[in-house]
Write a structure and sequence with these properties.
InterPro entries: DctP_fam, TRAP_DctP, TRAP_DctP_sf
CATH topology of the largest domain: D-Maltodextrin-Binding Protein, domain 2
Organism: Bordetella genomosp. 11
Helix content: 40-55%
Protein name: C4-dicarboxylate ABC transporter
Number of domains: 2
Shape: globular
Radius of gyration: 23 Å
CATH architecture of the largest domain: 3-Layer(aba) Sandwich
Pfam families: DctP
Bound molecules: beta-D-galactopyranuronic acid
Distance between the termini: 79 Å
GO molecular function: carbohydrate binding
Strand content: 15-25%
Number of strands: 11
Order of helices and strands: HEHEHEHHEEHEHEHEHEEHHEHHH
């Protein structure tokens, strides 16, 4: 080879090496994940934790960018985008999936879980795995369940102490027909709306009440406009992390495993943060003047039969409910 040819060859080799060095970056994928909660909320921190594990285990090939604080829209918007594959992931309340995949209604059934331990036992068992798959036919791979504590009622004007106090109130609920039915079974009027509209609706009196866990009541500032928090603890609807089935099917089994494992490993991390946040949020709202009220829980519980009758209709759902109740 002549000197000139050798030099040309070396230049070519160098160009090729540069190209190869850039190649992993070219193949690298960044997944976007949506959450309506602020940066310091346990769900957001949990998905960020998952993102770190995924990046490390895929040697930087897969990264996840979490968009918090509704930057990508409401929960319903995100779900639609995930279905289309325009957005890869979303952490949403499983109540937001009720009308899309009916079996997700099961863990939201009123007074179904006896305690947080009971909820964890169920979600960590094959029942939890079965329920995570409930939305695959509708375009969503369920990656993990996250805690959301229990939801309780809060009011603007007067406290709810017993079922009779809920009668006739206009109560904001999540956009789910089960949530609507639950509030109607209490003798109240349900107003389904997105979380982002609740603060103003409470403030202006469009609704008299809403219901949520302590961290959401606190972080969304609802306690400033509805200071009576009544411990009805009527539902323990968990959060769910969903992945677009369209995008999932394009991934290798190895990459799918990295994602699934990392999501699962973010669960205990999230649970720890959740317990801390519940206590912290409760302290914040109490300090700000919110009143925490004990209620006659049995009066609420006794009113829930019509909800079970209407929604637990298929043999599969009946079986799920029975199996959940049997978990010790
Ligand atoms: C919260 C949940 C949110 C959202 C909200 C609501 O507890 O974390 O994802 O669903 O409730 O009431 O809309």
């Amino acid at each position: 080879m002549s000197h000139a040819a050798r030099a040309a060859f070396a230049r070519g080799a160098l160009a090729l090496a540069t190209l190869l060095a850039a190649a992993p970056a070219a193949q690298a994928v960044e997944f976007r994940s949506a959450d309506i909660h602020p940066d310091d909320y346990p769900t957001v921190l949990a998905v960020r934790h998952m993102a770190e594990l995924v990046k490390e285990r895929s040697n930087g090939k897969m990264t996840i960018r979490v968009y918090s604080g509704s930057k990508l829209g409401s929960e319903d918007d995100s779900i639609e985008q995930v279905k289309l594959g325009a957005l890869t992931m979303a952490r949403v309340s499983s109540a937001a999936m009720h009308n899309i995949c009916p079996n997700t209604r099961v863990p939201s059934l009123p007074f179904l879980f006896r305690s947080t331990d009971h909820l964890h036992e169920v979600l960590d068992s094959d029942i939890g795995t079965q329920l995570l798959k409930a939305c695959e036919g509708a375009g969503f791979v369920g990656l993990a369940w996250y805690d959301s504590g229990s939801r309780s009622m809060y009011t603007r004007n007067k406290p709810i102490k017993t079922l009779a106090d809920a009668k006739g109130l206009k109560i904001r609920v999540q956009q789910s027909d089960l949530s609507v039915a639950m509030v109607e079974a209490m003798g109240a009027n349900a107003t389904p709306m997105a979380m982002g509209e609740v603060y103003t609706s409470l403030k202006t009196g469009l609704v008299d009440a809403a219901e949520n866990n302590f961290p959401s009541y606190e972080s969304a500032h609802h306690y400033e406009v509805a200071k009576y928090y009544s411990l009805t603890e009527h539902s323990m609807t968990p959060e769910i992390l969903i992945f677009s089935k369209r995008q999932w099917d394009k991934l290798s089994p190895q990459d799918q495993k990295i994602l699934r494992d990392a999501a699962q490993e973010s669960v205990p991390y999230m649970r720890k943060l959740w317990t801390e946040r519940e206590a912290k949020s409760r302290a914040i709202v109490e300090k700000a003047g919110a009143q925490i009220i004990e209620v006659d829980k049995a009066s609420f519980q006794n009113a829930m039969k019509p909800v079970y009758d209407r929604f637990v209709t298929t043999p599969e759902m009946k079986d799920l409910v029975q199996r959940i109740q049997a978990v010790q």
